[in-house]
Design brief:
This protein is of the alpha+beta class and about 160 residues long. It has one domain. The protein is globular, with a radius of gyration of 19 Å.
């Protein structure tokens, strides 16, 4: 009895779930220990811890300068672009790995309102969220996990 070998078939580039929903820049893999592959568009990178912390501390002065209501209105406008006022100032956006698109207005509302509320519970949740952020390869806070987002740095404005 002879052993037959099957000819190797070329590997497909991506499954249907990995295809972007809208035409976008080519995706580059971001490999982590916790999640094997997260695809990001060319020119987009996972936001650094320093940039994320900077956005956190920038949000308060922006809210004060805009008298709170201006920050809320600004946020409601830019959520549709997958960002928040502080993230926008620092060139970051929220990315949805599951759909391979930037976050929608609804996702940003979920992330910022519900996620912000949960992080504000008991005061200790903010510390828990920060520890999760520092210990996660993808630098996700509780709010990021609630909305299933990653915060990316988009210096070339590929996601606009």
């Amino acid at each position: 009895m002879t052993e037959q070998t099957m000819p190797e078939q070329p590997a497909t580039e991506a499954t249907a779930l990995e295809q972007p929903l809208a035409p976008a820049a080519p995706l580059q893999p971001y490999v982590t220990a916790q999640a094997p592959v997260v695809r990001l568009p060319e020119g987009v990178q996972l936001a650094s811890a320093g940039r994320r912390i900077g956005a956190y501390f920038l949000a308060f002065p922006l809210a004060v300068v805009t008298l709170g209501i201006g920050y809320f209105i600004w946020g409601a406008i830019v959520w549709g672009k997958g960002t928040s006022p502080a993230l926008q100032v620092l060139g970051m956006k929220a990315w949805r790995p599951a759909t391979q698109t930037r976050a929608t207005w609804g996702t940003m509302a979920l992330r910022n309102i519900v996620g912000g509320f949960v992080q504000g519970l008991f005061g200790v949740m903010l510390l828990v969220s920060f520890i999760m952020f520092l210990s996660d390869d993808r630098r996700r806070t509780i709010a990021d996990r609630i909305a299933d987002t990653l915060i990316v740095h988009d210096p070339a404005k590929v996601l606009d």
